[in-house]
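Supplementary Methods S3. Complex input for the 4'-deoxy-4'-aminopyridoxal-5'-phosphate-bound model.
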Amino acid sequence: MNSPGDQIDLAEPHMRENLAMAGLDVDYVRATGNTLYYLGEDGEQIPVTDFAGGYGALLLGHNHRRITEHAIALLTADTPVLAQFSRHTAAIRTAAKLNEIVQRELGTGERFYAVFASTGAEAIEAALKHAELDRAARVAALSSGIAASVEAARAAVAGGSAALSPDVEHFDDLARHVAEHNARVSARPPKYLALTGSFHGKLVASVQLTHNEEVRSAFAPLAAQAVFVPFNEPGALAKLVEQSRETLLDLVVQDGRVEIVEREYPVFGAFLLEPIQGEGGIHEVSAEFAAEIRQVCDAIGCPLVVDEIQSGMGRTGSFLASADLGLHGDYYTLAKSLGGGLAKVSVLLVRESRYRQEFELVHSSTFAKDGFSSAIALKVLELLEADDGRIYRQARERGERLKSMLTGLGAEFPTVVKQVRGRGLMLGLELHDQSDSEAALLRDFARAHILGYVLSGFLLRRHRLRTFPTASAVNTLRFAPSAEVSDAEIAQLETGLRELCTILRDQDEQALFS
Ligand code: PMP
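Predicted complex, serialized as structure tokens:
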């Protein structure tokens, strides 16, 4: 359990041991742009080109000069970092800037209110809580409408202007039946809609919306469950919604008779959607499927939460990847690159027409809206928007360059590369499964779902390249470098991947582990 330097490792040592097995437990000592450095045996700094990009949090690269200079200036000026329950000017300005950008991308004049948090999963949890507050308010309005109408029916029966149907003796029996049914339905926890392959975080509520069973199922008793909709499958959503349909009962007087009528009950708290799934293996939602989701959500009054935590902030060439699909969400979540690689900051944006201001009184966090993170986020937004959106154009152009290299390798090694997917600088290279390989080690690692990490270890040790498999689809290697990724860095990746593909094509496990 000891880590280098004989310091006992008590910080999740089991994970480090796993990393060590794959040759990935490197101690990085410096980072700039697309490069991380570790110390060699003689104390020299060895550069590693970083295509993992902080799991998508480094669109501007490690320690971007303008951001570190801004951070130093903030600290030198003794900027208040934690001054809870005050005006929070930096957060106000960041929310305004986010509105300017998001409204432009969506072509809407509607405002979005911002709830700040520190991590991606925390923003998702805030979205789920806000959606539940909204759903509960809609249930309360529905219930009080029903209560009023039941009382009106009772008065009509008592006054002789309405009759009961022949099979009902007393109005109270009918009212009790209605009340008991409604209490039973209303007591059930909400459900959520998400897509197969989705990843929305690993906290108590958000992990239930992350499709990967390995990380989800042990915690199922802790939170409301998701109904997973087959990815990009037309018609599947409408069917699942119909199967989950619930109604409350109401009593109304029609043609002088008391009748039971059904009222649609809001079963679903929210629909969560990544426009491009990241951890699920880099899969893009089709524009047709996005339109179908929007239409079903509108039909059942369910808020659509567009999770742009990985795909947003310009990574795919637009501030919001979903805007390119023509999709309009009710909520948006952003994190990762919002912190510029330095701050931990995330945000939930809620469309004004769906915003519940009472949420502000029941939700808070010590670190939310802190002066440092908010000011860094504002600087990041300014950098993204500078020069008429140069970074967005660069992400698109660099992404096309990187993707065409990967696609070329795919054509060169069709028995090794299954598919290249993604947009901008959110790319994935799916390798064919090696679970039936003749080579024993390749087969065993593939069956244990760790081959992708072993391949990452090879690229790191032999080619000084950093990439990892996507979390829930371990045959897909991810590429999410900064917008400054150079032709030379792409060429370095090509060399490394070509050797890796050759090894896999020739099933030469000796070469992989030598
Ligand atoms: N949503 C998406 C789409 C993500 O990619 C991630 C992180 N990979 C999260 C949510 C969770 O973010 P965090 O790790 O900051 O909690």
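The chain is about 40% helix and 20% strand. The pocket of 4'-deoxy-4'-aminopyridoxal-5'-phosphate is lined by residues 55, 119-121, 124, 199-201, 274, 278-279, 307, 309-310, 335 (CB under 6 Å).
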